[in-house]
# Entry
Amino acid sequence: MPLDSKHPETLALHAGWRADPATGAVAPPIYQTTSYQFRDTEHAAKLFALEELGNIYTRIGNPTTAILEERLAALEGGVAALALSSGQAASAFALQNLARAGDNVVASTDLYGGTWNLFANTLKEQGLDVRFVDPSDPENFRRATDARTRAYYAETLPNPKLIVFPIAEVAAIGRDYGIPLIADNTAAPLLVKPFEHGAAIVVYSTTKYIGGHGTSIGGAIIDGGNFDWEKFPDRQPALNTPDPSYHGAVWVEAVKPLGPVAYIIKARTTLLRDLGSAPSPFNSFLTLQGIETLPLRIERHVSNAQAVADFLSARPEVTKVIHPSRQTGAERERADKYLKGKYGALLGFELAGGLDAGRRFIDALKLFYHVANIGDARSLAIHPATTTHSQLSPEAQLATGVTPGYVRLAIGIEHIDDILADLDSALRAAGA
Ligand code: PLP
# Structure
């Protein structure tokens, strides 16, 4: 449905769906089907030839998932989206869509540990070289670029450092070479708008804030439609040369009548078709339900997290609070440029008592859940030294900057008094 509004509060409820023409149903239906009957042979042939877009098979597309995709694209200011079964699938596809064996991608060191593992091990074993660079100097991306660099990759608000990525600076470097910036915006939906700063592709783990209720693993890739793939045929061969996996289609040509969607259509019709990381229609429905309240939830997440950052800063048990509002100098300037005073809902802190204090703190929590997830409506906590970080290589551990007494919090939308009371009693249990 064409919708004029640019307001996220409205788009979150209306983009991509208006009452079901057949039944009048207001809530998006769950199309729990694998297949779709073709009207006749001509219709089927057109669908397969991409002359007409439509439903073929739920591995490649589904009407419930299509509502989710349209809503995500609208909220992000992109032209089209591809929903996937996890955030991991989204980050893998985002690179594999452009880079083949022998090619490389330059990525920020400040990444979620699972993304780091995917890039440093699994994709590397498949011949795709991901080069990690320190994002504090955007020029590091240029230095690591060569003739076979196909993309730059970064998290906008990387956890656990929470130092905002220089989106516009790195996107501008890439655009000179025909290299798109792919931005994982999982930690900052609605807070950071990567396309407004020159990113070409946005990636989400919808498992987190987008879904918001900790019910469904999911991911998405959103195409900004703002990148001129055709202008750089040597740099972007995957979109500019005949693709044997789709009867020789040259994606920038084949998809032109549909708009600037070559990247996202290729991801759906080749990677999703072949690798099959499709979301279930039921998970797409649950994610859509979550999105309806995303703008409201984010406001509360952010204000609660700010109150927690202020509270922890005054505690004797805490030696350091990691939150953009506590940053100074260039880091703070960047945080303010991109986050505009709304510093997200993730924060970390270091306990004076180190490893054992971290354990005592976690074990004393009553309201916060002790989980590896972030972005749930409930408040969550984890002690990386005894959990997530034990799986990382020493190099990756160093890059995260996490110490033995570090605790990560993902602040939920409960009443702030209850959140602070739980933190207060756990800090007392942790001791100095
Ligand atoms: N990107 C970020 C920033 C994440 O935090 C996560 C998960 O924690 C992922 C990607 C992977 O998403 P998923 O767990 O949905 O596969």
Q: What stands out?
A: The CA atoms of residues 58 and 318 lie 50 Å apart. The longest strand covers residues 149-155.
